[in-house]
């Protein structure tokens, strides 16, 4: 990544005027996530569900906040184990020797976790990053199960949470998601603002998701408002096929494994990455969100305007929904030769859609 690029971010999570008087959504933003990698960031949206009382909040909110706090340090540890596998006594990364690098074939280098090029740049093997993300989600799932067990809520209908996470390392953006929260990119074309989805909602309309449920003996019911997993009493109980928690539905095919997609960063195209819960995505289209942001970015381009944009976007979106919602916005600020910062259509335009093709 061009080290003149600086990622800036803002987010909100507020209560709507609908049937809920509480908010179980939350979000997390961690700029400079791996300090040794300039421009790295981590961000996530977690949409909890579940109405059991838990201390001073509902159980879904307790779970979403637990996952929010638990996942990032585990992920950082997993990433460091592959990015910096050996340390010398001074605590800095030991490079592979030039002799070792020269003796490695290109195929061999693809199997390494990471190494330093002759020019000092760190090479990161994306397959190992994806493995680190999977491991972090798996460990977080186990920690969440332990958390609910200690609270006496395991398998008692405590609920769970979605998770959609963005991780940027060098020129690669990784999106990992479980549940029905979404990630999408806003970008400029020659004549208009457009959007591209970066993940899929995990529900029963996907062939692989419904097949897994049916193979486990689970059932789901399709109705106008969506598809729902049916519990043992024949009641609609969950409108997603993957979740962080909801452990009582594992026997019916619900899983906690994230889909992971990878997107190569390019410049001068996209201007905003958004992560959102269904409180936004079910009410306001991604295209409308992109147009709102495009208009706001046209008015607020100075340093520190992220908070203004966040507030304006929250107001415009909240006018349309009756329920709770969490929302995240990330965009790149690229200083140019002049002495002010301008927001360009930056960042993500090449995509690996292999997990999302089958329907």
Automatic annotation (TrEMBL):
<dbReference type="InterPro" id="IPR036457">
    <property type="entry name" value="PPM-type-like_dom_sf"/>
</dbReference>
<keyword id="KW-0904">Protein phosphatase</keyword>
<dbReference type="GO" id="GO:0004722">
    <property type="term" value="F:protein serine/threonine phosphatase activity"/>
</dbReference>
<dbReference type="InterPro" id="IPR000222">
    <property type="entry name" value="PP2C_BS"/>
</dbReference>
<dbReference type="InterPro" id="IPR015655">
    <property type="entry name" value="PP2C"/>
</dbReference>
<feature type="compositionally biased region" description="Basic and acidic residues">
    <location>
        <begin position="95"/>
        <end position="116"/>
    </location>
</feature>
<comment type="similarity">
    <text>Belongs to the PP2C family.</text>
</comment>
<dbReference type="Pfam" id="PF00481">
    <property type="entry name" value="PP2C"/>
</dbReference>
<dbReference type="GO" id="GO:0046872">
    <property type="term" value="F:metal ion binding"/>
</dbReference>
<feature type="region of interest" description="Disordered">
    <location>
        <begin position="86"/>
        <end position="116"/>
    </location>
</feature>
<protein>
    <recommendedName>
        <fullName>PPM-type phosphatase domain-containing protein</fullName>
    </recommendedName>
</protein>
<dbReference type="InterPro" id="IPR001932">
    <property type="entry name" value="PPM-type_phosphatase-like_dom"/>
</dbReference>
<keyword id="KW-0378">Hydrolase</keyword>
<keyword id="KW-0479">Metal-binding</keyword>
<feature type="domain" description="PPM-type phosphatase">
    <location>
        <begin position="9"/>
        <end position="359"/>
    </location>
</feature>
């Amino acid at each position: 990544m061009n080290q003149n690029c600086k990622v800036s971010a803002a987010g909100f999570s507020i209560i709507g005027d609908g049937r809920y008087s509480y908010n179980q959504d939350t979000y997390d933003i961690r700029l400079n996530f791996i300090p040794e990698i300039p421009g790295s960031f981590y961000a996530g949206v977690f949409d909890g569900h579940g109405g059991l009382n838990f201390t001073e909040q509902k159980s879904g909110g307790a779970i979403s906040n637990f996952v929010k706090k638990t996942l990032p340090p585990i992920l950082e540890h997993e990433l460091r184990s592959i990015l910096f596998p050996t340390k010398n006594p001074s605590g800095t990364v030991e490079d592979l020797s030039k002799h070792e690098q020269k003796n490695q074939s290109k195929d061999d280098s693809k199997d390494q976790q990471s190494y330093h090029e002759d020019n000092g740049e760190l090479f990161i093997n994306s397959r190992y990053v994806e493995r680190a993300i999977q491991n972090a989600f798996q460990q977080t799932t186990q920690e969440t199960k332990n958390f609910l067990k200690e609270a006496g809520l395991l398998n008692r209908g405590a609920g769970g949470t979605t998770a959609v996470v963005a991780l940027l390392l060098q020129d690669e953006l990784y999106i990992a998601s479980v549940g029905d929260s979404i990630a999408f990119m806003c970008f400029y074309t020659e004549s208009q603002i457009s959007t591209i989805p970066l993940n899929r909602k995990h529900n029963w309309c996907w062939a692989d998701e419904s097949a897994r449920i049916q193979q486990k003996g689970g059932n789901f019911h399709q109705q106008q408002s969506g598809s729902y997993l049916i519990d043992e009493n024949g009641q609609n109980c969950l409108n997603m096929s993957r979740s962080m928690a909801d452990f009582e539905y594992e026997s019916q095919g619900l899983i906690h494994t994230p889909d992971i997609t990878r997107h190569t960063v390019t410049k001068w195209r996209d201007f905003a990455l958004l992560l959102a819960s269904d409180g936004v995505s079910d009410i306001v289209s991604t295209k409308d969100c992109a147009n709102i942001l495009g208009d706001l970015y046209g008015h607020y381009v100075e340093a520190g305007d992220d908070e203004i944009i966040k507030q304006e976007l929250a107001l415009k979106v909240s006018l349309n929904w009756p329920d709770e919602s969490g929302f995240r916005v990330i965009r790149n600020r690229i200083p140019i030769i002049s002495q002010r910062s301008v927001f360009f259509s930056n960042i993500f335009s090449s995509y690996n859609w292999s997990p999302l093709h089958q329907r």
